[in-house]
Amino acid sequence: MSTPWLVEPAGPLVGELAVNGDKSVSHRSLLIGALCDGPVEVVGWGDSADTRATLEAVRALGVTVDDHGAGRLTVHGVGLTGLRPPVGSIDVRNAGTLMRLLSGIVAMQPSGVFTLDGDESIRRRPMERVAAPLRAMGAEIETTAGCPPVVVTAGTPLHGIEHVLEVASAQVKSAILLAGLRADGPTTVIEPTATRDHTERLLRAAGATVHSAGGRVTLVPPARLQLARIEVPGDISSAAFPIVAATLIPQSRIFLRGIGIGAGRTGLLDVLERMGGRIALFNRRLTDAGEPVADLEVAHAELSATSIGPDEIAGLVDELPIIALAACVARGRTRVRGAGELRVKESDRLESVRDALHGVGGHIEVRGDGWLIRGVPSRLRGGTVDPRGDHRIAMLGAVAGLYSEQGVTVTDPTAIDVSFPGFRALMQAATAVRR
Ligand code: S3P
Q1: Prediction pTM value
Q2: Which of 61, 72, 108, 183 is deepest in the core (most CB within 10 A)?
């Protein structure tokens, strides 16, 4: 347990803020980089506990990665079939993305037994959603009562399948596509609603044929992957916290450069715009690995309530905790529906967000698979937030503290390191002008 963090009420957020590299793309830069023929340069890699787990995992699988510091890595790819099973299990720690994607990758290796395990929270996360389609492809994979540890015995021939996802999940889609890299024919995943497409973009940049249209994603197995350089965009899911803080606190105006605005990631911006937020996007471009990025300018605005339906959830799944905070201080009632996936994230976020916001004076109830939030347009009272080991709940508590009357104590802020180790320093610098 670390020292509690008392976040005091703050004045405006001002200036240019730099967030860490996107977590989803950082994981994939290592995992897909490892499968390439020859070296892949990665720039802007987001260093965090989760992505360090991926760095250690690929090294344990026999891949050399040079860490030059400041987000620059060289991944010496071993090709599609070059991973070697480590002695003992691979520890994914808290990283669900690593657990899911790596299951697909090791399943298509030519031989070896791979055991994937992680922390207490990972051991509660559903794995049959990945294991069942991999089995349908021909993989040998065992879960532990549906959860990690997971044991994959590689070497069975894999077949291309057509799989309809039961839940909209980029992790499940990616695991299936990655296994499909060595299937005997094309692999198709059909999504109920579009999810983030970083795997498809990176595989395409590495020379694979991936078609996406009308909710169907089809990968044709490539002979090899090759990719010179991956620029990792800024993480919109980390930026979400200063974006909402700047929106709430009067006289704020912040700039964020090179933020990833790819498909399935920008739901937060749409929702804030509907609520009255003032966010401008400019300097839009594509990175050389095909990721859309833009610079963002965010200014304070008065917010009003909105309604968020099931079709929107995949595009803002990681941003729902901070959206719930915005809704608590917006004018009117906000209803969120179809967010049952929040129950199987790093914590049961339907409950943990409700409890965190209750604890600081918000009016929020869990209703079915969503929330009903009664917004009161003024600073929150303040209080204490127990993040329950969940990084996004800890950062939610900190933003609540900045926009509170009495401040918020985040009981254990260490979880923040899972995705955004620089968060505390960034928020302190941005709010250096006191109220
Ligand atoms: C991720 C996908 C999402 C998201 C997670 C990262 C990814 O999970 O919540 O933080 O990198 O593919 P699901 O796709 O399982 O919803």
Answers
A1: 0.98
A2: 108
